[in-house]
Amino acid sequence: MRTTTGRWVTLTHVIPRPPDRYRWVYLWQWPIRFMHWTAAVCLVVLAVTGLYIGKPYFMTAGEASSHFLMGWVRFAHFAAAGLLVMTAIVRTYWLFVGNRYERLAALFPVRRSDWVNLVKMVKFYLMIEPERAPRYLGHNPLQQFSYTLIYGVAALMVVTGFALYGQSNPGGLIYGATNWIGALFGGMPVVRFVHHVGTWAFLIFIPIHVYLAVRADHLERTGTMSSIISGGRFVRADRAFVDE
């Protein structure tokens, strides 16, 4: 419809074209992706077998010597623990040789700006001033802080786990290397309790971690899930990121 001034009036809303220029950012090299999924499988195996060792939630009929169920469960637990330690060694090495998104400064909040942006990211997830949240290609400071905590829990689990394992062979190499841990914690029952509580810390962390990753992919279109598979993601060329 044309007005008296000669201008056209329309009831339709003109939607601007989205930018058609994207760029590919390579974030996670293949060793990191492989270690990530290997550690994920190990944690599931450790949780399932560890809870069974602590309190068997099903039993089989017949003599224990005929099926060796607890023996196989313990073997799976110890094998997964050794494999998890291997992934930790590789990840530690990659803190110093990886790219900018994989190195120490990108995984742990060691800079003052990280702590400032940490508060902004907490507000973002609480829906408080979400428009002021800084954009990150790799881990944002809140993720850095949570991963630092979970790595600390993992280290505690490894130390207490090997201390418990060493008790099965008094006088052995692992027993001699870890026997002091019992005295440090005030006895092996306390070590076992701490190890059990650490299992629940992972059982709480894992679903939250998966939920936030899926949420970011679905709502924020950040490619979080796909990047840990393909190694990178497409981002808008007109956007700036803090960690570039």
| Total strands | 2
Strand percent estimate: under 5%
Residue share in helices?
55-70%
* H-E string: EHHHHHHHHHE
Q: Give the mean pLDDT.
A: 83
- Radius of gyration, taken over Cα atoms and rounded to an integer in Å: 25 Å
Structural class: mainly alpha
Largest sheet, spatial ordering of strands? 1-2
Give the overall shape: elongated
Q: How many strands, what sense, and barrel or not for the largest sheet?
A: 2 strands, antiparallel
SSE arrangement:
Elements (H helix, E strand, L loop, with lengths): L21 E5 L3 H25 L9 H4 L1 H29 L6 H4 L4 H14 L15 H26 L6 H13 L2 H33 L3 H7 L1 E5 L8
Antiparallel strand pairs: 1-2
Helix pairs in contact: 1-3, 1-8, 6-7, 6-8, 7-8
Core attributes:
mainly alpha; 244 residues; 2 strands; two-stranded antiparallel sheet; 9 helices
Written description of the protein model:
With 244 residues, the chain is mainly alpha-helical. Helices cover 64% and strands 4% of the residues. It contains 9 helices and 2 strands, in the order βαααααααααβ. Strands 1-2 form a two-stranded antiparallel sheet. Helix 6 packs across helix 7 and helix 6 packs antiparallel against helix 8. The model has no long low-confidence stretch (mean pLDDT 83).
